[in-house]
Specification:
Blueprint: H1 3-11, H2 15-18, H3 20-31, H4 35-57, H5 89-125, H6 127-141, H7 145-156, H8 160-186, H9 190-197, H10 202-238, H11 250-257, H12 266-293
Helix pairs in contact: 1-9, 4-5, 4-12, 5-6, 5-8, 5-10, 6-8, 7-8, 8-10, 9-10, 10-11, 10-12, 11-12
């Protein structure tokens, strides 16, 4: 352990905090050499801006029905066409971006801290605590996540909040297993041993020394999981268990458009393209974060 690490341990500050500025500069420098990653970040930033400004940039009222314009093909007046009620599909996709981003962020804010907490406690405590927490994790993992989410959503009733809860209840185990694996490595490092010698309490070791070192891996895993969250939310919406009409949820839009697939393909294809682009952006961002933040990963 070098002098900087010893000072950090003595003052009770984790090493990563003292090096945060340097790490950020290094991250940005590496990101400049990842064209696909830059593209993913750009698309993701655009989606967030669209979600924030959705009511202002939508060319038409996404909830306004006009049966006289029902099922119109894509044109200059309706770039993505109209649905069976004459509603502008592009406007509904723009407003649906807000629902998708809200769902992804809500689920991530639940499963990230929950999985991290369970994982670091299991890895740090060991023994019976580790065995109990990991057996619970294994039980949840033994069920297909989509099937389990469908069961929870059906039991709790349809709705956007229900979809968030259902996905969250099935999404934390992989995060917990990853955090536990990282904790088993970090708890034996020199700077943790030094902090323990200086009298740091178990809670301080857990939350100020071990947890921060697990966060990069958890963030990468969360980002890679976001595409799956989008697909699961779309599946729940497709089955009528997600956001309810007239909310323009992309999965529900595909479900409504499947009846017109042969003659009016755009009603189902346009939201499908939106799901594809969003999932691809999150996958590119996740892959890039893994390449940059995980020193053990080599291309």
């Amino acid at each position: 352990m070098n002098h900087a690490d010893a000072v950090a341990a003595n003052t009770g500050k984790p090493v990563f905090a003292a090096r945060a500025r340097t790490a950020l500069a290094a991250f940005l420098g590496k990101l400049m050499h990842e064209p696909l990653g830059l593209f993913g970040f750009a698309v993701l930033a655009l989606l967030i801006i669209i979600a924030i400004l959705a009511p202002f940039i939508a060319p038409h009222d996404p909830l306004r029905q006009n049966l006289a314009e029902a099922l119109q093909a894509p044109s200059l007046s309706h770039w993505a066409g109209t649905d069976e009620f004459g509603r502008d599909i592009l406007s509904r996709l723009i407003l649906g971006t807000r629902i998708t981003i809200q769902t992804v962020l809500s689920v991530s804010l639940i499963i990230g801290p929950l999985g991290l907490l369970i994982g670091i406690i299991a890895g740090f405590a060991g023994g019976r605590t580790d065995a109990i927490l990991m057996r619970i994790t294994d039980i949840v993992l033994s069920f297909p996540s989509l099937i389990l989410a469908l069961a929870f959503a059906a039991a709790l009733g349809p709705g956007l909040n229900t979809a968030v809860i259902a996905i969250s209840l099935t999404g934390w185990p992989p995060i917990a297993r990853l955090a536990r694996a990282e904790t088993l490595i970090v708890r034996n490092t020199d700077y943790v041993a030094a902090a323990r010698l200086y009298g740091a309490s178990p809670a301080r070791l857990l939350f100020l020394y071990i947890a921060p070192m697990c966060i990069p891996s958890v963030v990468v895993r969360l980002t890679l999981n976001m595409a799956g969250i989008i697909l699961t939310a779309a599946a729940l919406g497709f089955l009528g268990l997600g956001a309810q009409p007239p909310a323009p949820e992309w999965g529900a839009m595909i479900s409504n458009g499947r009846k017109f697939m042969l003659d009016h393909w755009w009603v189902a294809v346009m939201p499908g393209i939106a799901i594809l682009i969003t999932s691809l952006a999150f996958n590119l961002v996740g892959d890039t974060l893994r390449d940059i933040l995980d020193p053990r990963h080599a291309r």
